Amino acid sequence: MPITHIKSIANLRDYVGRDVAVSDWLEVLQERINLFAEATEDRQWIHTDPERAARESPFKETIAHGFLTLSLLSELGKRAMSVDGVRMGINYGLDRVRFVGPVPAGSRIRGRFTLMVLEEIKGGVQATWGVTVERDGVERPCCVAEWLVRYYE
């Protein structure tokens, strides 16, 4: 997918209420899941033990942590769009996060970004992005969230 280039922070206003960008696909391999498990100390077998997951999991394979999927929003956003003239961007938080479908190891995911709200803040703006994380070949999304990002000039 081509990256959506937004010319300036001021031009973000033109995108409010619109679907802005879709990222290209990102493969979520077992190695990434294992590294996330180590970094967060969340080594639950449903994420890290393919043999046990095949036997006991309702998914019949390992799945990514929901928080791993969520942490990939920054990368998916970078793959989908750029905003020129930003001195600094800050991940300000999230609202209404739901993990509605699994991300099995080896799946490809992408992010779909809609600019819901844009608010003025000192030195910049705060964007509320509606993000849907989709899995290749599956209609139901993996994750839906409202992601707050602050852009400073």
Your description of this structure?
With 153 residues, the protein is of the alpha+beta class. The protein is built from five helices and eight strands, in the order βββαααααβββββ. The chain has helices at residues 30-40, 45-48, 50-56, 66-71, 73-80; strands at residues 4-6, 18-22, 26-28, 81-83, 88-99, 107-121, 124-135, 143-152. The strands form two sheets. Strands 2, 3, 5, 6, 7 and 8 form a six-stranded antiparallel beta sheet that branches. The protein has a two-stranded parallel sheet with strand order 1-4. The mean pLDDT is 97.
Based on CA atoms alone, the radius of gyration comes out at 17 Å
Number of helices: 5
Helicity, in percent? 10-25%
Largest sheet: 6 strands, antiparallel
What is the 3D form?
Answer: elongated
Strand content: 35-45%
How many runs of DSSP E, i.e. beta strands? 8
Give the overall average pLDDT: 97
Helix and strand element order: EEEHHHHHEEEEE
Structural class: alpha+beta
Show unreliable segments. Answer: none
Q: Compute the separation of the termini in Å.
A: 27 Å
**What quaternary form is this?**
single chain
